[in-house]
Structures are given as structure tokens and as C-alpha cells.
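EI: anyone free to look at a 349-residue chain?
SC: sure, send it
EI:
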Amino acid sequence: MKAVRLNLEDRQAWQKLQHVLISLASDYMDLVAAEQTEFKFEQQVLSIAFTLIVPNTDRDRLNEFTQNIDRYFNRLQLVGVRRIEWEFYAIGEDLPILSQGRDIAYLAAPPPLSSSALATNSNSRRSIVGNNRNKGILAKGSSQVGNLVKRIQGWLTSPQTIAIARTTSRIAIRDPRGSLIAVKDLAIAKFNDTINWVDTFPWENWTKEKAQQIKRRHQRNLVRSIIEDVLIFAVMVIAALWLVESLSPPSFNLALLPPQHHDTNMTSAKYRCGNPAVSLKNYVCLSKGMGYNQVASILGAEGKALGFDQKFGDRAVIVSWSTPELSMNATFVNDKLVSRAYRQLTASR
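SC: here you go
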């Protein structure tokens, strides 16, 4: 993992270090009181004092905590620090129960710029700002996009990227499972790094800085800044409405539909029955109330009248359809099906 360099003379870096160590101590709430952690940086020595909740604490748990602290400092490059010390105190005690520390490689702080260099830099910065203002916002944006494209193109065509791609493809071909495991571990590591960055980012300072920038912009030109804010807000509202509309399902007004707007094609006998023939499927498809012509179209042929059925009255006519395998009778009253019956001839033989 790439080492992170922190200059403890910088207030933001000092607060970031404190925040990370307090967050690390919060993972051991049964061991130390994270909110009572004290930090001191004097004479190139960084001292950290932790307060133990219970004096007779578990040594294995304490060793695990100190090892995590040591691993964290191994990933850091502290500027201007020669030694790191951490001590553990019991509540209300002045003498530490446990003290540890180690010397680290000293990194000298960068020398401050001279006044003449600062003046030269300020003059050059003013000239650059004036030139950029003359070029305009569009020219600045196009140059940034061009630089980004060149950087991406250079990274893609660099020999190191090509060599890494070749090596990765060979490893993936030889050991696909190992490659997937390595990708999973890399994704987990990147996710943890992202979470750590979110946890350690100075959101409060960043918010205050942005608020001060907006305040200074309003002080320079109030009318222009208000117009810009209104335009930005309008663009955000339009984008939000467009996103909501694109993600929402289609809507329609039921009151505008005709009274019989549903489709009855799929519920008709033509779609429920099989091919026109005398079959059990078509027999099941027959329902009371069907006319003779509809039944004949379903069974595929005209039926043969057998006689009258006194059970349903004088107008009840029995019509028969038969094949070598199946015989089917249907009773009609006033051209409406009222009864049906079938017999399988092959089963009776």
C-alpha cells in the first residue's frame, strides 16, 4: 500500500491524524476511552496517551490494539518526527501502566520560501490569472479536457501499462480462479480505502472553506453571483425532474379509456381450444351457451342429429360427433349448448 505523508506542522494534517487514531480507538471501546485520548507533538516526538477503562485489562487484547497502531504508523511518513511514543494510563492515575515507542526515519520539512520568491510567485500568479481571464472560461475548459485526454492516452500507450496488461492476461489464463480471488481482494481493499478516506476527510473544514469561497464571491459581485446561483439551481432542478420522469413508469388516465377497453381475444374459445378436431381438449373447451355453429367450428365438422332429449324439453336436440377413437354428444336447446357427454371407443374395446 502506498505510504501517506503527513506534515504535523500543518493543522489539517494534525487534525486528520487525531481523527484516524480516535476512530481506531473507537473499535476497542471495551479497552480504552477513545474520547479521552491526548496528543502531543514537541521536540520532534509524537506522544499519544490512551486511557484504559479497566486497569487489569486483557493483555492479548491490548497487544492487538498496539499492533494495529504500529501497522498504521508503518503506512505513514511523518514529516519532522523522529520518535513515536504511546502510553496507557488508568483512570485517575498519573503514571502509565504501559509505555511503548520506536524511532522512525526523520523526514525534514521543506524549507520556507523567501520573501523575494514569494513576491515573484505572486507576480507570476497575477499575470497568469490575468491571462486566463482574458482567454475566457471556454478556453480554460477546453485546455483542461485536452490535458485529461492526453494523460489518459499516455497512460494507455505507456510500456508499463502494456506490460501489466500482458502479465495480468497470462495469469488470468493460467489461474482464472486465483485471478478472480485477487480481483475480489483488490476490490475489498479499495472499498476499505474509500471508507477510510470518507472517515478521515475533514468535512467540517471543507464545508467552512466552501462557505467562505461563496461569501467572497458574493462580496465581489453580488448580482452576478446571485444569477449564477439561480442558474445552477435551475439546472439541478431540471436534471432532477428529468431523472424522476425517466425512472417513473408510464401513466395513463383510466377516465379517458372507452368502457370496454380490455381485450377479449385471449379469453375467447378460439384461443383456449386446440386445432379443430374431435378431441378431449376441444371437449373440455366446450361451455354452456355456445351455439351450434361455434361448437361445429371447434370440433371441425358438422354433427349428426340423433334425436330429441326429453330431459331438457321438446326442443332439445342431440347432435353427435365421432371418430374411431372418440364419440361425443351435445344437446342444444334453442341453438344453445346445455349438455355434453363423450365416450372413448378405444378404451372400451
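EI: Residues 275-348 form a domain with the Beta-lactamase Inhibitory Protein; Chain:B, domain 1 fold (CATH 3.30.1450.10).
SC: 👍
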